[in-house]
Amino acid sequence: MPITGDLLATTMAGIAFIGCAMTGAASAPGPHAHGRRREVVVNGKRVKTVDVHAHCAVPAAMALVDLPLEAPGLLMTDTGTRIQAMDAQGIDVEALSINPYWYRAERDVAAQLIKVQNETLVEFCGANPERFVAFATASLQYPDIAAEQVEYAVKKLGFRGVGVGGSVAGEELANPKFHPFWAKCEELGVLVFMHPLGTRELEPSGRLAGGGLLTNTIGNPLETTIALSHLIFEGTLDRFPGLKICAAHGGGFLPSYANRSDAVCRTFPNRVGPLPKKNPTAYLKDGQLYFDTIVFTPEALRHLIAETGPGLVMMGTDYPFPWTSTEVDLVLGTPGLNDDERIAILGGTAARLLGIAS
């Protein structure tokens, strides 16, 4: 199906904002909901805040693979509700991303779907340039055209980032078949936002059944942990040292227990496989991996920053789903940060990586 002006108009009219596979919409925006736009100030300086983890979907693209449009989350036909919530929370710019649902689509369908999605995102952000940027999408199951899609998205459409899942139809991101994609991302200098799709291979066993919504509560951060570990131990980060990947949900469980990855290299060096060029913990600090702030408490954020560095952490909200109350206050309330570090986390680092004017 060729893309026409009518199709783009249809997708623009029906852009939808959804969240992390969890029923429900956004919670009440908070104490500033009915007042003026909250301006975030650090030591007397107005700070531009950027949310790197905010969901959306393009219904016209979803229809190409017969995915129901009644996906969970907050559906919108205009930006008013979202901008009101952003104003209440003190978010100046959202970097929109779409969780990959197309990794099993046929080649031609996937190519059309990505074209519809990316061009719709460009149109939407272009209509609201002060408030929205977006991560491009790519059909990563076909690494050759995924590389072409990223190049077109960056050079022709103006994207500064691309989104990926934590795996691709059951295959690890560290699989050598994806090297052409990683090489193109490195060449173009784009930020890759990695959002998990859950550890679906565990679900048939029943290990994540029962209470607690464990498919999401544990499954999502677990997939991120697995994906990052493979990228380290299979040498992907060594092969592409210029890659910049932002891992959702604070990088999963890896930053909380990364020293065990160092220890396994010492304890079982002959069983690890080819040893990475550095200690695994070094990859959390060297500027290839970035992390969002969705870790819920000041102590958890303090620990994440201690394990990575304040320049590698960016604010994320998971909008429209109420996993967090307000990430601005989380950053402002985390102990041990100086003013420059708070400014970097609130938006400075994301603005630099995504080409957002200060």
Any guess at the CATH architecture?
A: Alpha-Beta Barrel
Radius of gyration: 20 Å
Instruction: Assign the CATH superfamily.
Output: Metal-dependent hydrolases
| CATH topology (fold) name | TIM Barrel
Q: How does the overall form come out from the CA principal axes?
A: globular
Helix/strand order? HEEEEHEHEHEHEHEHHHEHHHEHEHH
Main β sheet profile: 5 strands, parallel
Tally of alpha and pi helices = 15
Please give the domain count: 1
Number of strands: 12
Spans of at least 5 consecutive residues whose pLDDT stays below 50 are 1-13, 18-34, 70-75
In spatial order, strands of the major sheet run 8-9-10-11-12
Structural commentary:
It is a single chain. With 358 residues, the protein is α/β, with parallel strands linked by helices. It has one domain (5-354): TIM Barrel. The protein contains 15 helices and twelve strands. The chain has helices spanning 5-13, 59-63, 80-89, 107-127, 143-155, 179-188, 214-217, 219-233, 236-239, 248-251, 254-257, 259-267, 298-307, 327-333, 339-354, and strands at residues 16-18, 41-42, 45-46, 50-55, 73-75, 93-97, 132-134, 161-165, 191-195, 244-247, 289-292, 313-314. Strands 8-9-10-11-12 form a five-stranded parallel beta sheet, sandwiched between helices. A hairpin with a 2-residue loop joins strand 2 and strand 3 (45-46). Helix 1 crosses helix 4. The longest helix is centred in the first third of the chain and has 21 residues, at 107-127. The protein is globular and about 60 Å long. The model is unreliable at 1-13, 18-34 and 70-75 (pLDDT under 50).
